[in-house]
Amino acid sequence: MLVEGNKALVTGGSRGIGREIVLKLLQNGASVYYIDLNPGDSLEEYRAIADSHGQQVVYKEGNVADEQTITATTEEILEESGGIDILVNNAGITRDGLIFRMTAQDWSDVLTINLTSAFYISKVVSRSMIKQRSGSIINVASIVGVIGNGGQTNYSASKAGLIGFTKSLAREVAARNVRVNAIAPGFINTRMTEVLTEEQRNQLKAQIPMARIGEPEEVAKVVLFLASDLASYVTGQVVNIAGGMGM
Ligand code: NAP
Predict the structure, then answer these.
(1) Do the Cβ atoms of 189 and 196 come closer than 8 Å?
(2) Residues having CB within 6 Å of any atom of ligand 1
(3) Percent of the chain residues past pLDDT 70, beyond the cut
(4) Radius of gyration of the chain from Cα atoms?
(5) Of 41, 123, 183, 217, which one has the fewest beta carbons inside 10 Å?
(6) Cα–chain-centroid distance for residue 43?
(7) Which atom number of ligand 1 is nearest to the Cα of residue 66?
(8) Nearest to 142 by CA among 198, 188, 107
(9) Which of 231, 224, 233, 238 is nearest to 21 (CA)?
(10) Superfamily assignment of 7-241 in CATH?
(11) Residue whose CA lies nearest to ligand 1 atom number 10
């Protein structure tokens, strides 16, 4: 029960890595609010865990790229919860393509959903965390934001931007006991990587020192650590969760 009694807000919590993060936080005693485009299939499973421990799990529909609605939804969650202790900016998309085929829309969709959304939500939540003199913000970046990847100029720019955002915000709020860290997952088994062919998977594995693709739960375990008091003196860091890529 590493986050017992805490209240968490997770974006993109219906599936993939976000789903495992919601589960890990619930299993460790937090109440969880999550924002997504749709509730997915996980809400009943979340409720069963929350109910058995007397916690809450609340789904809020919202597009993190829409400043007005996401700001209003985040304010609503702060009001209902009485304060958020853990924020995980996880929602993200890919629109891959070589630069000469990439449209301006592919570029701006990825930048807005992956990076600007973290600004919208953190702006509201960090103000409240500063007032309560505690909080942990975790931004889900990517190893390609650190080492780059052909075909992903938009995605790697958004994730590298998220890393810069993390370090700057960490400096702004550190003295008020608010910690801000980023994680940089490598290739993880979710819908985002389902599209890879067997050949692409084998080529990828050859670049991963641990020679395998990671599981969403392996990402969620690091998020739990950063969210919890175990990381009470850790801020402004980027933790690679990539089987040794980027070392
Ligand atoms: P995923 O399986 O596609 O899940 C992403 C979740 O975010 C979905 O529930 C999706 O909703 C939601 N979402 C997308 N756009 C949204 C929006 N505008 N507003 C609200 N919610 C939105 O992806 P994932 O692999 O779990 O990725 C989660 C995070 O990890 C992303 O930031 C991603 O960049 C990062 N990451 C993933 C990998 C990987 O290999 N999988 C590696 C490094 C980093 P819908 O289902 O309705 O679209």
Answers:
(1) no
(2) 11-12, 14-18, 35-38, 63-65, 90-93, 113, 140, 142, 185, 187-188, 190-193
(3) 100
(4) 17
(5) 41
(6) 18
(7) 18
(8) 188
(9) 224
(10) NAD(P)-binding Rossmann-like Domain (3.40.50.720)
(11) 12
Evaluate whether 208 touches 186 at the Cβ level (below 8 Å): yes
CA distance 112 to 163: 15
Per this entry, what is the length of the chain? 247
- Measure Cα distances from 230 to 182, 225, 234 in Å: 16, 6, 9
Which run of H or of E encompasses 51?
helix 43-53
Cα–Cα distance measured from residue 16 to residue 208, given in angstroms and rounded to the nearest whole number: 21
Q: Ligand 1 pocket test: pick from 11, 20, 23, 37 the residue with the most ligand atoms within 8 Å of its Cβ.
A: 37
As a whole number, mean pLDDT of residues 165-190 equals: 98
Looking at ligand 1, which residue's alpha carbon is closest to its atom 44?
A: 142
Q: For residue 140, what is the enclosing H or E element? A: strand 135-140
Contact assessment for residue 1 and residue 29, using Cβ atoms and an 8 Å cutoff: yes
Ligand 1 atom 31 nearest Cα: 92
Q: CA torsion sign, 194 to 215 to 22 to 66?
A: negative
Give 46-72 pLDDT, tens digit per residue: 999 999 989 999 999 999 999 999 999
Of the candidates 51, 54, 73, 53, the residue with the CA atom closest to the CA atom of residue 63? 73
Ligand 1 center from residue 120 Cα (angstroms)? 17
* Annotation says 59 is catalytic: no
Rounded to 5°, the CA angle 129-225-216 comes to: 110
CA of 16 to the centre of ligand 1 (A): 7
- This prediction has a pTM of 0.98
